[in-house]
Design a protein that fits this description.
- The complex is a heterodimer.
- By secondary structure, chain A is an alpha/beta fold.
- Chain A has nine helices and nine strands.
- Chain A has a seven-stranded mixed β-sheet with strand order 2-1-3-4-8-7-9, sandwiched between helices. In chain A, strands 5-6 form a two-stranded antiparallel sheet.
- In chain A, helix 1 packs across helix 7 and helix 3 packs across helix 4.
- The longest helix of chain A is centred in the last third of the chain and has 16 residues.
- Chain A is globular, with a radius of gyration of 17 Å.
- Chain B has two domains: 185 residues, 3-Layer(aba) Sandwich (Rossmann fold); 112 residues, Rossmann fold (3-Layer(aba) Sandwich), CATH 3.40.50.920.
- By secondary structure, chain B is of the alpha/beta class.
- In chain B, helix 2 links the parallel strand 2 and strand 3.
- In chain B, helix 3 runs parallel beside helix 4.
- Classes of the chains: A alpha/beta, B alpha/beta.
- At the A-B interface, strand 2, helix 2 and helix 4 of A face helix 3 and helix 4 of B.
Chain lengths: 251, 362
């Protein structure tokens, strides 16, 4: 029996496929969900995709959408500048947990407070992947990284940032805030679609954190990778919609 | 383009207000800014004027954001600008680096304040090095050092055109005196002076259907290979060198028979101008050279001035501890003329200071 090849999103830019993320990395799954959401919403022609520096930079030519590449942590203001200048464009910013929650946290926080009409997707893999696996704001207590070689000590370095929770607190009612995981693909795609629709409807700031995998830096095999994602990460970072002005909350 | 000013008219206002009017007349679409003295009134006037003319403004969370939002706006084809000073200028070097790398036509007004650190909020010429060469790597930018409010008005209009024509980030380097002082100037709509405004255009969000009549635009800002970056840096450097003769601006007076040439820029050049006239009246043959573009620097023109004169000495006068002097030394390397200095970091220089210094060295 012939195997059916998985369908490729129409909005993917095929000359740059296969993509360059590590085997087992969750970026590919996230970007597939984003591609399918762009297709479903029919917005390929008027979307500006912007990526951060970090592993997310590898997505700079991922889509057949006009795209730009910024600096570490600075995708949020670039997207805000684009949206403020050309409100008819759909702006989708793509970043990691270091870029969004650490070096770019002031941009994330203030854009959320201002209820900027941008969609931001933040991939949380609990470490700085591109630079070789250092501790991130999202590293779990006890987790070993290159800069927490004896395990993250919460007394010395604090507890992991729960981004969607603080963004939900900061934003007014029109904002969309959710946490998805690459282990629940259909939900991930729905959350991303909702976050884009929320921008299209002009409701406000739209934010999805995506729990993702990094077997390269976690030094885990397939089973350990999935176990860390589903058992450890999803335990600390609850998955679901925190705010959904579209009125179709995840049950 | 809409007429803003109508008939050219005289005005008496601060330099910061002048910036706001000039940006309006130049057709600027949107300003992004963050409060820092002495540029605040650029925002104050812009926020009063902008809604009346359907222009945009966003007060960002910091200067990083002001710079990067400006980068975003110009990428989608809008004339955007920002203004800052001092530590804000330091923070903005990051977005300016992106503008250099991606060739983004930002227009930025720098109103220099005292440094290092928070320094003073008053005045200096201590942001020359930062504004001309502040980025990481070796990017290219265009820096005009203005001396009068008329020049602020003229060069803001010109700056937008130069930025969009050549796609290099462009700077109007003023200072706290120019920012806060009132003086007369003539305001005008560019078209009334025969100035054609360069139309902005998008780098992303461009017309056409992706996959039908065009490819997607993918703007790259980081490279995997040494050679890829090398090619980009060399190509941009070569282009910048090619256009340098079109960009360079300077002013010189009385250099032909000068014994000493006073080199200064910005508001200090007004003191130098007065000093040269007074010295000449006293029989001392002083000359005057003022770079208007600090980058690219009018190095050939300064060399020619030195060659044509009998001058054995330069006097570099600046409200900084040698930032202009360093530029000059690197630009006229090989000249044997003696270089003297009058460094008054963070304080104003008047004709009297320069006259005394000249008399002490001849």
């Amino acid at each position: 029996m012939a195997m059916l090849a998985p369908a490729t999103p129409k909005s993917w830019y095929l000359p740059t496929k296969p993509h360059k993320f590590c085997p087992g990395c969750g970026h590919g799954i996230t970007l597939k969900a984003l591609g399918e959401a762009i297709d479903e919403l029919g917005i390929q022609q008027n979307t500006i995709f912007g990526c951060d520096i970090g592993c997310s930079l590898l997505a700079w030519n991922f889509f057949a959408c006009d795209s730009t590449q910024t600096h570490h942590g600075r995708t949020t203001p670039v997207m805000v500048g684009i949206k403020r200048a050309r409100p008819e464009l759909i702006t989708i910013g793509y970043m990691g947990d270091g870029g969004g929650y650490s070096i770019g946290s002031q941009h994330l926080l203030n854009s959320a407070v201002r209820n900027e009409k941008v969609t931001l997707i933040l991939v949380n893999n609990t470490n700085y992947g591109m630079t070789g696996g250092q501790m991130a704001p999202t590293t779990l207590p006890g987790q070993i990284t290159e800069t927490s070689p004896y395990g993250r000590d919460a007394e010395a370095t604090g507890y992991p940032t729960r981004g969607p929770e603080f963004i939900a607190e900061l934003t007014p009612e029109g904002a969309y805030v959710a946490r998805a995981t690459v282990s629940k693909y259909k939900q991930l795609r729905r959350f991303i679609r909702n976050a884009i629709r929320n921008q299209m409807e002009g409701n406000g700031f739209s934010f999805v954190e995506v729990l993702s995998t990094c077997p390269t830096n976690w030094r885990t095999n397939a089973q350990q990778t999935w176990s860390f994602l589903e058992d450890k990460m999803e335990g600390y970072f609850p998955v679901g919609e925190l705010k959904n002005p579209l009125g179709k909350g995840d049950k | 383009m809409d007429k803003i000013i109508g008939e050219p008219k005289k005005a008496f206002m601060t330099g910061n207000e002048t910036v706001a009017w000039a940006c309006l007349a130049a057709g600027a679409d949107i300003m992004f800014g963050y409060p820092i003295t002495p540029q605040n009134e650029v925002m104050h006037y812009w926020t009063r004027l902008a809604p009346k003319y359907n222009r945009g403004f966003l007060q960002t969370e910091d200067e990083l954001s002001a710079g990067f939002t400006t980068c975003g706006a110009v990428q989608v084809g809008k004339k955007a600008f920002t203004a800052t000073a001092g530590p804000g200028n330091v923070l903005m070097q990051e977005p300016f680096g992106m503008a250099e790398a991606m060739r983004l036509p930002l227009l930025t007004v720098i109103q220099q304040r005292g440094g290092p650190s928070s320094g003073t909020v008053v005045y200096s010429q201590q942001e020359v090095t930062l504004t001309t060469y502040g980025g990481n790597g070796e990017g290219h930018r265009i820096v005009y050092s203005t001396a009068t409010h008329q020049e602020i008005y003229d060069y803001v209009i010109k700056g937008f055109n130069i930025a969009w024509k050549y796609r290099f980030p462009t700077f109007i380097l003023g200072d706290g005196y120019q920012a806060k002082m009132r003086e007369p100037l003539e305001m005008y709509d560019p078209q009334d002076k025969g100035i054609e405004m360069v139309k902005p255009y998008s780098l992303i969000g461009v017309p056409g259907q992706i996959g039908v009549d065009r490819e997607p635009q993918h703007l790259c800002n980081i490279y995997s290979l040494e050679e890829e970056l090398y090619d980009v840096v060399m190509e941009v450097a070569a282009e910048y060198e090619t256009i340098t003769p079109e960009l360079v601006e300077f002013d010189s007076k009385y250099c032909e028979d000068a014994e000493v040439i006073i080199v200064s820029h910005g508001v200090v050049s007004r003191a130098a101008d007065d000093a040269v006239k007074i010295l000449r009246n006293q029989g001392i043959k002083a000359g005057y050279f003022r770079p208007i573009t600090l980058r690219p620097f009018p190095q050939q023109q300064l060399r020619e001035c030195i060659a044509k004169s009998d001058a054995k000495q330069l006097l570099v006068a600046e409200s900084a501890y040698g930032q202009l002097e360093r530029l000059i030394k690197q630009e006229i390397y090989g000249e044997t003329i003696k270089i003297n200095n009058l460094f008054m970091p963070g304080v104003g220089i008047i004709d009297f200071d320069i006259i005394n210094k000249v008399k002490s060295i001849i």
